[in-house]
Amino acid sequence: MATKPRILIMAALVLLGGLTGCSKEQQTEPSAPATPEPTSTKDAPPTPDATPTETPEVEPTVDALPPGFPDPATLIGQVVHDEQAADGSWHTVVGGAPLELTTTLGACFDGGSGDVCGYSVSASVPPGPTPQPATAALVLLLRTAGPLADGTPTWTVLDAVATTAPGGAPAYVESCDGTDGVVVWADPAGSTGDTVPVLAAVGPDASVSSLVEVDPASLSCPWMGG
User: Which of 41, 124, 163, 209 is the one with CA 20 to 30 A from 100?
Assistant: First the structure.
């Protein structure tokens, strides 16, 4: 029979066409998430280390000397003597040149020399009548150097200091009777008993070569006033 093979062929073609016409469902692989590009971050400039603040050196303050006061250091080693002016006041002559100050005291002491006037201290204050309160004084520690031709005693300056009245208020510059070579600042109000009220003091050290501060509480200076 001639029709059977044709039918089989047609069926085969239909089946083949069906197979070729039915495409397999395409599976789309999920794409990998996009990797974000690295953000280009500029490195922040490093914070500079804090520079330590340098404290400038402070020069020590030197109090100005009162008018008429020489630099005490220039007097050390000089030969001096006291001289009376025409108005009756006394002043100290250093190397032949008188100081522009008024001598308010001079006091001899032994100082271990065996001579009652082997040493001396003197004090000078700004010009004016004495005794009167002052705010500054030049104190000299002296060693005897023999007399001038007219018999005036001369001295060699061992040490010199410019000292000021405590608190800046005028006070009296006096020697402390009974205490060798000590010069005191005395309260201008005067004595309240048998002793001078001492505000501050300077005197020779143990070697009698320089002037040092003396504790006022360690002193008992008899009041010689009336």
Answer: 209
12 HSE (CA, 13 A, CB side): 6
In this prediction the pTM is 0.70
pLDDT by residue (tens digit) across 170-193?
Answer: 999 999 988 999 999 998 887 667
Q: What 3-state class would DSSP assign to 6?
A: helix
- What residue segments make up the domains of the chain, in order of their start? 72-126+133-216
Strands (E), the chain: 79-84, 90-94, 97-98, 102-109, 119-125, 136-147, 153-164, 172-175, 183-186, 198-204, 211-214
DSSP letters, 140-173, are EEEEEEEE-TTS-EEEEEEEEEEEE-GGG--BEE
Average pLDDT, the chain: 78
Reading phi first (left if > 0) and then psi (alpha if -120 to 50, else beta), residue 191 is in beta
